Amino acid sequence: MKHRNLLSLLFLTLSSLSVTTPTNSFTQNHPLIADHNAGSATPFTAKAALIRHWNRKIPTNRPKPDFFLSKASPLSSLQSSIFEKLADSNTLSSHLPQFCSSANLACFPDLQNDLSVHNKDANFGSYSNVNFTNYGSGKVVGGVDSFTKYSPDDNVPIDTFRRYSRDSNNHNDSFANYESDGNVVTSNFTSYGSGALDGAGEFTSYGEGSNVPDHKFSNYETQAADRERTFKSYADNANAGDQSFKGYGRKGHVVGETFTSYGNNSNVVGSGFDGYGEDSGFAKDSFTSYGSNQNVPENTFNSYASGGESGSDTFANYRDNANVGDDTFTSYAKKATGAIEEFSNYGQSANVGSDTFSGYGKGAQLQTVGFKIYGSNTTFKDYEKKDQISFQTYTKPASANSETDAKRIRIEHLVEAGKFFREAELKKGTVMPMPDIRDKMPRRSFLPRSLAEKLPFSGARISDLEEIFKAVRESSLDRSMKQTIQECERKPSRGETKRCATSAESMIDFAVSVLGNDVVVRSTESTAGSGGNIMIGEVHGINGGRVTKSVSCHQSLFPYLVYYCHSVPKVRVYEAEILSVENKRKINHGVAICHLDTSDWSAGHGAFLALGSGPGKIEVCHWIFEGDMTWAVAD
């Protein structure tokens, strides 16, 4: 009864707060909302509690770094207590807007629902985070909808187009500069253009430069007739995302897809084509410069064009100069009639990837398949009617002891200039490129340890976590949450000691457990010089430049700050003045770490691609990026 009364009082306190915004958030004038800067001077804030914990664990008189303290939770003790009680009673999700706003979290935006039918032309400029349902459905004749600069530079955009342009006639759609330069973007096109007649859809510079893009096209233009889609500069220069085409163009008639410059220069991007063009007639699909210069692309074509009639697929300059990568064609063109597949300059990756054709063309009739200048390391399993396949200038796999197989090819364009460098370059007067070290993660704060420990953080309780944060299932941020937990639960590598810090106090405890209580945490001072050439000024080796241990902590993508911290043996840590090349004035103070033992690193690691060597043969150095940090024993 006592607990129930206390909880009722807490709910009464929350419900009595003034509501002045559509998000039902706490007002900034309410006493429960402590100003971040003003609150730091009182003993009743999470930041003050963090400082007390630091003093207990690291009893030195050295000043505490602002970059670290700035990540402390802005919550007051009273706020923390309220949210802890809500977590205990499993009702925190009911107050998510207040929780996210007060604690400075990166939560999932609520989509504005619009279920009405819109049958007039529209021009959407500088628009974001909207659910377009039944939009453009049933347009009788003609019309054009234009989405220009939609969700640009947004942090966590989530855009949904459901039943868009369904059963329309000669309706054109244009998506230009859509979700460009966004962070953790999610797009969902469900039943888009289904049953449409004529018209065209164009996606230009879609998701370009975005971080962790996730685009889904489900039942896109199913049973459509005489429609053409063009994907130009789609997801170019993106980082670590996935594109999914499920049931795309199924049972369509005279439909055509053109993918030009799709996912080029992207890092670790996966594309899935499941049931794409199934049972369609006279479909014409073209993949040109698809996945060129990508780093570790993975593309899956499952039941692609199965049961189709007189279809034509062309793969030209597909995955050229990519690093490694894998393509899987399962039941591709199965039971198709009169299908034509042309692979030109396919899979000419700079470092050998793998291609698997399983059940390809099974049961097909009057099929023509041509491979012209096709890459190595390819498996054709259960490929029907091999006598109908034409191979021209097919690259045979090299022998294991050949010079081609033994010597890895340098692919500087796949790794940003300056991201990795050699230890000898850290000397006064060196001019070198500096990578983009800007923090591209959503801005968030730690949670107080007492609150973080009450929230689920394990693979076994991922559904509870999704419920608390009202995660959009299988969105980019939802997948990132899962990946963060998977990485945290992964067994450490040989010689690695690791822990995921879900609070600032937890990070301090881990660093002290590895290095002792006389430690210093460092990070590069600013982002000045980022993305251009810099000159190295005075260089100082930590601990006299001796081989030492350090604890490096890297941000993970999660609603609140979570750091992946690990200690690896045999490193040297340096501080270096960063100067302007033009006037040689100091513009930044950099922190770099050099890994002396790389023998356990993957042969496909970006460092070896950039520096032209292999595991265990060279040391590898890199800057500590904005938002990351490294701990070391004090000088």
From TrEMBL:
Coiled coil: none annotated. InterPro entries: BURP_dom (IPR004873), PG-associated_BURP (IPR051897). Residues 1-20 form the signal peptide. Keywords: Glycoprotein, Signal. Residues 420-634 form the BURP domain. The keyword Glycoprotein applies. PROSITE patterns: BURP. Pfam families: BURP. It comes from the Eukaryota. This is Polygalacturonase-1 non-catalytic subunit beta. It comes from Acorus calamus (Sweet flag). The gene is GP1.
